[in-house]
């Protein structure tokens, strides 16, 4: 495999001149540049990204750690992050924890050992990064996405789930529904708790009571929504409307209603949360609370790059405002 010295020897220049041509970071005459580029082509030389990163102490790589699932929200969010990385000249290394604490810490250590320039973390609060790992790499800028803060200086970007839960529930109330249930995600997750609290606040403000069995804790997955809706349908007095803590569970609820021979919104109105791409193609299209996933990914990358450039900045906490998208399910 050809080296930079081989290129310099063939072109009759110094290795520093070859470096300047490759990195385009200093003036080199057209004639010299042509000799260097000709030598590169002749030797099929490929610059070493590792060597360059060691010299510059920068890899132009960002690591992302998340708990992925069948929920399309995650793939759409990652798509936005990856696009933003590409547009800004960075590569993205993605690791999936699958909700396992040991796997999360192992992946985290691997990303840090690979000298990523920054980290994006999207996981559940029940599994915080091992303090000893974070202590060993104190200079790595980190942005938490949609995750409650832990003891540290990481920047934080969250959806205003409390507001979103209230918006979704008030829409059902404004439509005239009074028997409204809530299918919530796991209560170890801050967004789940806040969306549930938003639902409760809206019901309380409207003077509506919540039946004891109208709050179902599920798992943010399609199957969780399916099971939860079947539980609601089995009640002596089923609800007439449901706020689902995310779109995946809402789609599972659609399936349960279809299997029961019931219609949306004729027999049951449904509001979801996230506004995944599939929501608009359901029958009927799903009314949902929009999370700006592309904007969230872009903001996360910009905040991280800003942090990398100015590591002494104080902690940044940013919050995105949810928006109701009214479709046919209510």
Automatic annotation (TrEMBL):
Highest taxon of the lineage: Bacteria
Keyword Cell inner membrane set for record: no
Pfam family, one: Peripla_BP_3
Keywords, ordered alphabetically: DNA-binding, Repressor, Transcription, Transcription regulation
Coiled coil segments of this chain: none
Repressor listed as a keyword: yes
Listed GO MF terms: DNA-binding transcription factor activity; transcription cis-regulatory region binding
Domain HTH lacI-type as annotated: residue spans: 2-56
CDD domains associated with the record: HTH_LacI, PBP1_PurR
InterPro entries from the UniProt entry: HTH_LacI, LacI/GalR-like_sensor, Lambda_DNA-bd_dom_sf, Peripla_BP_I, PurR_sensor_dom
UniProt-recorded name of the protein: Ribose operon repressor
Lineage: Bacteria, Pseudomonadati, Pseudomonadota, Gammaproteobacteria, Enterobacterales
Gene: rbsR
